What we know:
mainly alpha
Amino acid sequence: MKHIVLAGAMALSVLSACCATKKYVAKTVAPVETHVASVEAKNDAKNTDQDKTIAGQGQQIQDLDRSLSQTKEKLTDTDAKAVSAGQAAQQANQAAQQAGTSAQQANQAAGRAQQSADGARTFADQGLTRLERTIDASNKFQMSKSSTVLFGVNESKLNADGKKELDYFAKQAEGLQRFVIEV
């Protein structure tokens, strides 16, 4: 039992010495840890602000670079358009001169066309007058022959006399022009 008491006393002395050391360290280190934590918080806040500022400035630089590129493109396009406009003006001047000559020729041709049109109108009017007379004459039909063919009672076919009458009527119309047969 002596050994157990001795081991217990030894363990108690080690534990009590260890606890005292932890308390001392905790008291000594606690203010330092608090100060370090507050400095880290301030440093983190400054770093965050600086990061935001740098990001904003980077975005502004990108926007300026994009704007500069667009301005250069517009300047190049404008220069090309100015050169093209100069060439187009020269071509337009040449075309205007050719158009003037063509207009004179067209005016002369129009005079000749007007004369031809007047002659064609007179000819067409005369032709229309003749056509109207012909149509009026052709629309005035006169009955020249009439024939009656009857079916038998309750029958749907013609008898031999009815067929002969229709054949005779059709032969009389063979030589005629513009005729109407009504049934």
